[in-house]
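Task: fold both queries, return tokens.
Query 1:
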Amino acid sequence: MSIDSLLKRDSFIERGARSRAQALLDPGTFRELAGPFERLHSPWLAMQNLVTQADDGVVVAKGKLAGRPTVVLAIEGAFQGGSMGEIGSAKIAGALELAVSDNERGIPTQAVIVFETGGVRLQEANLGLAGIAEIQSAIVALRRHRPVIGISAGTVGCYGGMSIAAGLCSYFVMTREARLGLNGPQVIEQEAGVAEFDARQRALIWGLTGGEQRAATHLADACVDDDTAAMRDTVIALFAQGVPLVPRSDRAQDFLTGLERVDTSRQATPQDVRRIYSKGLAQ
């Protein structure tokens, strides 16, 4: 991409959660549910003298995408690192469950989840974990009717239990700048040591968990430029493909077979991982 194109593009990464939801939906159809004026903030953060946010860092928007009923659930990475607590999780799970009810009544509501999250909010512990489990269950229920599309744009990435939720989506879209992993680099280094994974090696981190690598190893369905129009067009095209015949999560054994080929006597390189997953995982 030329410098001129770079300066003129409409960055999706630089948008906040509410702006991302607005940009994905058709113009004039955005309607926010359980918004900031409802004051659905976390009661648990306040008890720990931590700053709360009126929407608990989750935007629930309903509207249309390419003329079809759509709900967009966007996590705000700038608030508490996009961590999922009781309220935010309930907003996402509740919206997905309402979409399931719509489909059961003949209204083909589809869903987009914009993941910008480090996973569970540690200050809310088991309540956050239970909420993430409800989100995962709701994704599986809805994807039987209509595709559930996940997006990870950056810069926080998608980690922890929410990375499992991302894996349950019908399709997953990333930018090159995004990252996807069960554990973050600092967590791996803390638990296994710097010899296992050096969290300072930025090239290695993006090489193993970035959008290009995840798309090349079939853990994501597309890696798009950081451009709002390109992101929206990609999501529309994936919805047009319909429900996948075999969800990615039903291919778990294929991925486990690939993992068994990893040489654990040394640090795997991005090229190693691509070579391993290119065998038997072609889509």
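Query 1 returned. Query 2:
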Amino acid sequence: MMKWALVPLLLLLLLIVGSLTALLFQLTPSLLSQLIAEPEFHFAILMSLATSLTSLFFAFLIAIPAAWVMTRSEFFGKRAVDALFDLPLVTPPLVIGIGLLLLLGSQGPFSVIFPELSRWLFSPLGVIIAQTYVASAVLYRSAQGAFAAIDPAFVRTGLNLGLSPAKTLILVEIPLCWQGLMSGGILAYSRALGEFGATLMLAGATRFKTETLPMAIYLNIASGDFSLALGCALILMALAVVLLLALHRLKRRKTHAKP
């Protein structure tokens, strides 16, 4: 039985290692020199880093308070609201993008309140909105788990000492679960960095305007420029490896910190 179970394990490893190796073997000195001199390549890297970091900042502002309220409060319909926060995690990104476009676009209800918003969607602002949406959903779920893991005695002690709930959050809870929040932040950042479907629908695919790394791969594969698409894929893979190493380092520190 054990031997048969090894077959799917080896098959999965073969697919993972094989696809990564296939990408790395395409990296040649001539391709590297071509990429270094390519302005579109530089633009896609800077656009991806700038928009994903901005999105992560907004995701922290949205997801941390939301997760804290959902963990520390009880109200009618809480389970239904909590289940709704899982919806972005299982919804196809293209569907998310269409929904956001209908909500925030010129024909949506938000255009009545913020008419200027729809005019700015097909710009880096649209990229940030799409990335923030998906990153917030990932960070919310991680933050909720981190807050729920805190011993309630610490929270009660803070409140008994006269701290307000907000000060208890900042001075007691966040320091106790910062590693869980940072792990969630890394996962959210990786999700924002690789976001494609929602961004395509909400911000469009325009060179030197809304061209993130995933968008550059799409545009250049479509136009037949395989080398630039390959360079963008290699950068995304390198960033993914860095984020994965950071995530594992945080997990090890968390494990060692346990009594």
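Both queries returned. Flag for query 2: The longest helix spans residues 39-72.
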